[in-house]
Amino acid sequence: MPDEGNKPVRGFALEGVTVRFGRVEALKDLNLSVEPGEQAAVIGASGAGKSTLFNVLTRNVPLAAGRVTVGGRDLFAMPARELKAVRRQVGLVHQAYNLIPQLSVGMNAALGEIGSMSNLRLIKTLLLGPDAGLTARVSGALDRLGLGEQIRTRTADVSGGQQQRAAVARLLVQSPGLVLADEPFAAVDPVTTDRVIETLAELNREGATLLINLHDVEVARRFPRVVALREGGVVFDGPPEQLTEERLGEIYAGETPGSVERGPEDPEVSGGVTPRKQDPARRLEGRDGLPAR
Amino acid sequence: MASPHAEGRPGKEIGGAIPRFSWKSSLVILVVLGATGWSVVGTGFNLLELLTSGDPVGRFLSGMFPPDLSGAALQATGTGIMETFQMSLLGAIIGSIVAFPLAALGTRQNVLVGSSRTYRALLSIPYHLSRFLTNVFRSVPDILWALIFVVALGLGPFPGTLALAVHSAGVLGKLYGETLEAVPSRPVNALHSTGASGLGLFLFGRLPQAMSGFTSLTLYMWESNIRSATILGFVGAGGIGQQILVSMQLFNYSRLATLVAATVVLVLLVDRLSAAIRKRLVN
Ligand SMILES: Nc1ncnc2c1ncn2[C@@H]1O[C@H](COP(=O)(O)OP(=O)(O)OP(=O)(O)O)[C@@H](O)[C@H]1O
Ligand SMILES: [Mg+2]
């Protein structure tokens, strides 16, 4: 399969998707379509079904009803082989970094390639380490994230922010066509948030579709398209300008006030004029043009 | 203020940590007491006998002093100790080598959501097979394995070592398997979601996270084997037990004293050594 290097970009569509956990309906008749190369932010109150939406897109939870297509193919009908091929092109970033703490930072980054390794190559990698080509890509990715020094350090021994960057390095090594980021900036310092956003933006410029789940509405406003979930369904889908206070009130209705993270100042006067430490995305906007395309 | 009904309502108080009186708990106590009495009668358990029949006990104890420190006795002790040590070490090493594939196959696989029933059934065949083997190896005690191997292969340390290896393979197979399954699953699932195969998940997801647990379990197995190896000689399977048995049968209590003291020292030394290694490796 010619899947080295340039990977096809992946859009996806959900039609009438329902997901049940016992009596809980995490997603209810949800419709959402994202074009290849697009970037969209997902917001919604706790329990609205954001993480479940991400789990559906990797076929990690069963559907009760509906259809999910990724790259035009029915995700839940495809055989295991094809699913593996699709999964190789889907990159995940999580709030919890999902690294193997006992392995080195470099090896964790190299695992971005694990989906395309044959059994023989797996064993070779286990015994001898990654081959020259993979090693070059790993050190390139780590250098880009300022982690070149830590390539041989045990992942458990590096700081939380460095672990988050190692997770992004894994993403770079994988070079996916569709990036799913589930709250990648929660509990992470501003410098790391900067780097993660930059890297995601770069991947998007190279052609990857980006779906990012954010707790912070103000960060979500930087994206050209915002999708809001409530009780398992889409209640808003459009450009951030249409996301009025009234709309936000509906999206987060019933939520305790403290749990909605909004900037203390008026969110409309932004534009990177007064860079604030707690909001690196805002600073970034002026430089990188994220998320403008 | 608390609700006025909260006080004195039966069934709503929290109570202490010890179960209250109930017909169920009294029945349990009665059953335990009954079983204890039954076992005392059945085994002829009588501490008074131990105290009153001072004569044979005293003769046995005084016979042990002074311990036999003659050249012949020391040589017999030395060989026995060495053999016991070698048996326990080899048993643990071979056991862990056999246990590894058993545990690997006996670990539940990540199954794709929406995969077919037959596929799942196929996946479970090696799982059940290795679980079955592990259980057979483990549930037959090592001294019984030793008897079986002595009958099949004759007397000596070789059948004893085999017995330890088989039993260790069963115990470690189960414990390794449990360690592999108890590993934090999120990093493993993350690899699964990026398309990793079963072997990839095992080698790079579960194994690195389970490795330090394996080391520590193998060392425990070695400690346990050194204790077992001291008695396998009673059924003719080598080690210091064989010397102990002979000395007993010849009423050579002073030599027995030397052998038993050496055994105690060996067991304590191995315990210490293994604990020291474990501490170094795990931290
Ligand atoms: N594996 C599961 N088993 C049972 N219930 C689940 C499971 N996953 C999600 N749920 C339930 O589904 C609903 C949606 O959960 P989900 O994790 O998608 O919310 P979320 O929008 O990501 O919330 P948060 O912002 O707090 O992460 C919740 O009621 C949750 O309890
Ligand atoms: Mg969530």
The gyration radius over C-alpha positions of chain A equals: 19 Å
| Distance between the ends of chain B | 51 Å
β-strand number of chain A: 10
Mean pLDDT of chain B: 87
Bound molecules: adenosine-5'-triphosphate, magnesium ion
Tell me what portion of residues of chain A adopts beta-strand conformation: 15-25%
Radius of gyration of chain B: 26 Å
Written as H for each helix and E for each strand, in order along the chain, the element string of chain A is EEEHEEHEHHHHEHEHEEHH
Q: Can you give a write-up of this model?
A:
The complex is a heterodimer of chains A (about 290) and B (about 280). Chain A is an alpha/beta fold and about 290 residues long. Chain A has 10 helices and 10 strands. In chain A, strands 6-7-8-3-9-10 form a 6-stranded mixed β-sheet, with helices on both faces. The longest helix of chain A has 16 residues, at about 190-205. Chain A is globular. The model of chain A is unreliable at about 1-5 and about 255-293 (pLDDT under 50). The model of chain B has no long low-confidence stretch (mean pLDDT about 85). Chain B is mostly helical. The interface of A and B includes residues 62, 91, 96 and 119 of A. The structure holds adenosine-5'-triphosphate (ATP) and magnesium ion.
